[in-house]
Amino acid sequence: MHPENARAPSRPGIAIHTLASRLLRLPPSCGPVRLIGVDGHAGSGKSTFTGQLASALGGAPVLHLDDIATHEELFTWTDRLLREVIAPLGRGETARYRPYEWRTRSFGPARSLAPAEVVLVEGVGAGRRALRPHLARLLWMETPREEAWERGRSRDGEEQSAFWAGWVAAERRHFAEDPSRPSADLLVRQRPMGYQVLRGPAAPPGPDQLLTLSDGPTSLC
Q: How far apart are CA 160 and CA 41, in angstroms?
């Protein structure tokens, strides 16, 4: 959930490479950019999956919403994101934003985000109502919230227990008011080896959407 948590790179599986090729065939959704949202509960594995997808896309840029949220604005950062990132990308311009430093509770130096062919937006709230019109696809990490939160707590350690107590309450409120999963085009399930990508609740009809992407002995079924 925090930027200070390591995002270890790993090799993309067959399912992610196939997904990447499909995403590249989509029409742009935000100016010249195919903006792809990866949402899910904190601790659900969004950062790891998004890192592998970015690699499969040839090094696609990733905007981590941990860099946008702050202690005071866990979920009320929409206007700033639209103004600083979405609007410039929609004009085909380089976006500039200041990532939040969680340890110092202050904003760091400005960072640039160019209007690449595909830009990934990863974090809790990536599929919120205000962002969905700008997304080419919305992916939801299909990990039960209690399981995801337990993984997050274990990852962050006892020193973050107070933060997690406040976070869980805030995340519950956010998804109660603005749920992302019903609008997801694809559901991503972590498997013992790789991932399985399934049709989501909001997937448009079409033969391409009826295929399930999986890593393992069978890559397309």
A: 17
Q: At what angle do helices 161-177 and 145-156 cross, to 10 degrees?
A: 150
- CA-to-CA distance for 196 and 203, rounded, in angstroms? 16
CATH class of 14-214: alpha beta
Place of tokens 């925090």: 2
Rounded Cα distance between 200 and 183, Å, is: 8
pLDDT tens digits in sequence order for the chain, 221 residues long: 444 344 444 567 778 999 999 999 999 999 999 999 999 999 999 999 999 999 999 999 999 999 999 999 999 999 999 999 999 999 999 999 999 999 899 999 999 999 999 999 999 999 999 999 999 999 999 999 999 988 888 887 877 788 888 999 999 999 999 999 999 999 999 988 889 999 999 987 665 554 577 776 443 32
**Cα radius of gyration (the chain):** 17
CB 140 within 8 A of CB 127: yes
* φ/ψ bin of 158: left (φ > 0), alpha (ψ from -120 to 50), beta (otherwise): alpha
Decide: 150 and 43 in contact? Cβ < 8 Å: yes
Nearest to 16 by CA among 192, 215, 209, 220: 215
Closest C-alpha among 184, 163, 197 to residue 36: 184
Question: Furthest-apart CA pair in the chain: how many Å?
Answer: 49
Answer yes or no: are the C-beta atoms of 128 and 178 closer than 8 Å. Answer: yes
Query: Shortest CA distance to 5 belongs to which of 127, 70, 102?
Result: 102
